[in-house]
Amino acid sequence: MANLQWLLGFFTFFYPRAESTTRANMAPWHAFFGIVLFFMTIVTAETGLTQKFIFQGLLRSQEALMINFTGLLILLFGIFVGLSVILPRRNY
Fold this sequence. Notes:
Helices cover about 80% and strands about 0% of the residues. By secondary structure, the protein is mainly alpha-helical. The longest helix is centred in the middle third of the chain and has 36 residues, at about 20-55. The two termini are about 35 Å apart.
């Protein structure tokens, strides 16, 4: 899916003969699928951390605290990036 996103973006936005109407029509879809791919990577990272936490039987060790803190940082990073893409921009 990431390769398809890259190819469509390349041929739509970097190809010199692409029309501006085609670029304008593809821009919202390009942004939408880009954020979907980003959230899929966030979910994959969180799933991997959960799997490590469960299968190693970590309950109250230092490594468990590091895994929880890392998971929280990844989640907050995903939320802030998602909000920065979704919220409208102001031109000052």
